[in-house]
Design brief:
The protein is α/β, with parallel strands linked by helices. It has one domain: 3-Layer(aba) Sandwich (Stationary-phase Survival Protein Sure Homolog, Chain: A). Helices cover 26% and strands 25% of the residues. The chain contains six helices and eleven strands. A nine-stranded mixed β-sheet has the order 3-4-2-1-5-6-7-11-8, with helices on both faces. Strands 9-10 form a two-stranded antiparallel sheet. α4 links the parallel β6 and β7. The radius of gyration is 19 Å and the shape is globular. The relative contact order is 0.14.
């Protein structure tokens, strides 16, 4: 198996090393792991691509490249230029912090898996929830490091990946606890914290100019039963199937009764 890995925390992030170990075990002794990751942190860029400017590529060692671009750029570079042969799987992460609830919409980690799906390649985004029970561990990525291989294998071997148009990809969040406290893998929907909106924090520089920091909200607030954040804070690895099609089908049916008869 040939696996491409990337992230949004940057080529030097510790979570990428965790993901490399996961990918190496999944690929097996006859497989290959290719690393194409952002040269600098790209957290919060979502599915951004550098459409109007080129992305510089630096080869650091065999099968390891840094791209001055977004995670989606890295997937495009890997699939379209850098990897020698067909890619069987794209893994993105392991992100430092959760990409559950509303965070999903901002995540560059998700953006990479999304781009893989758009290119017709299986993609899995993997993130490590941080909390008081794991943030001070010697390895805060303990849950991901121990349970990541099993999760990926189970998805490869048993999960649905098809679709006539927009392919499925998967969002995985490891719970904020030590690996030996993880209860299992749960199939859940994306949750809604309600207070998970991004905001701004204004500051004034000594020069008198105003700047804005983008800030998030509390991450431990549970979502509804059967959804990602609630599963995570209760000690479960959350696994959420996703597609790039953002259409709300129920609302579409209702809208047809409001607008003109298209008939298409």
């Amino acid at each position: 198996m040939r696996i491409l890995i990337t992230n949004d925390d940057g080529i030097s992030a510790p979570g990428l090393s965790v993901l490399q170990d996961i990918a190496t075990e999944v690929a097996g002794p006859d497989g290959e792991v290719w690393i194409v990751a952002p040269a600098f942190e790209q957290s919060g860029v979502g599915h951004c691509i550098n459409y109007v400017k080129p992305s510089m590529i630096t080869q650091l060692e065999e099968r390891r490249f840094a791209i001055e671009g977004s995670p989606a750029d890295c997937v495009l570079a890997g699939l379209g230029e850098l990897v020698d042969g067909e890619i069987d799987l794209v893994l993105s992460g392991v992100n430092r912090g959760n990409n559950a609830g509303e965070n999903t919409m901002y995540s560059g980690t998700i953006g990479a898996a999304m781009e893989a799906a758009l290119q017709g390649v299986r993609g899995i985004a993997m993130s490590q929830f941080y909390g008081p029970h794991n943030v001070k561990l010697d390895n805060p990525f303990d849950s991901a490091a121990v349970h990541g291989v099993d999760c990926v294998r189970r998805l490869i071997e048993g999960a649905e990946w098809g679709g006539d148009d927009y392919k499925l990809f998967y969002n995985v969040n490891f719970p904020p606890c030590p690996a030996n406290s993880v209860k299992g893998l749960a199939a859940v929907a994306q949750g809604y914290r309600g207070d998970g909106r991004m905001g701004v924090h204004p500051q004034t520089a000594p020069s008198g100019r105003k700047y804005l920091w983008i800030k998030g909200s509390a991450q431990g607030e549970p979502t509804q039963p059967g959804t990602d954040v609630k599963a995570n804070v209760e000690g479960w690895v959350s696994v959420t199937p996703m597609r790039c099609d953002l259409t709300d089908r129920a609302a579409l049916d209702g809208l047809r009764g409001v607008l003109d008869d298209y008939g298409g």
